[in-house]
Amino acid sequence: MTPEENSDMALTAFNSPVSNGCCSTHGTVHGAVHLSRSSRSSRWQGRVLTGAGLALLPWLGYLAGTLPPAEAAAWITLDALEAAALLTAGSRSSRADARHRAPAAAAALLLLADACIDLATSATGPELAIAVAMAVAAELPLAALCAVLAARRAPRRQAVDQG
Asked: Whole-model pTM?
């Protein structure tokens, strides 16, 4: 037996063409996994959430260095919880893991609370303008995305025949 034939036999044994007791003679691959459109969308959304969670990590250091200690403790705790929820929801959603729903719901609630507290505690003028911009550009859209993901079940991978 030549090395090529031996390699082909090993690949055939590893990727058996037998499906439901029938051997395919047309060279088709049975059981190939394709991601549905909703699964691809979930992956993209998961990456957005993961990126947002990662972006919050340096922000925690900025808050620690610029806010008075009593305020820093509260804001760092809130933003650390947001980061943890976003990272968990994002990584699970990217893998089409059905367990993404609870951390996505938690992230939505935390982001909404963060936006409301920012707006309620900001002084008028530039501080309020920044709070409004952060709420409109980041916190509320992320909260909406998280709420949608929390309400939606994980996409299922579909097994389809090729050829």
From this structure: 0.70
Distance CA 158, CA 146 (A): 24
Q: CA 138: distance to chain centroid?
A: 16
In whole angstroms, what is the distance from residue 77 CA to residue 5 CA?
61
Which helix H or strand E contains 106, and what residues bound it? helix 101-121
Q: How far is CA 43 from CA 17, 24, 82, 151, 159, in A?
A: 30, 33, 20, 16, 18
Q: Which of 11, 17, 44 is nearest to 30 (CA)?
A: 17
pLDDT in tens, 77-127: 999 999 999 999 999 999 988 899 999 999 999 999 999 999 999 999 999
Amino acid letter at 38? S
Where are the extended beta strands (E) located within the chain? 18-19, 22-23, 32-34, 158-160
